[in-house]
Amino acid sequence: MHIYNKSCFKKYIFALFMLGITQFATAQMTQNYRSPNFWDNVRFGGGLGLGFGNDFFSGSITPSAIYQVNDKFATGVGLNFTYTDDRNYTATVFGGSVLGFYSPIREIQLSAEFEELHVNRKYEYDGIPDFRDEYWYPALHLGAGYNTGPVTIGVRYDVLYDDDKSIYGTPFMPFVRVYF
Question: Which of 51, 156, 176, 180 could form a disulfide with 143 if both were Cys (CB 3.0 to 4.6 A apart)?
Answer without folding.
Answer: 156
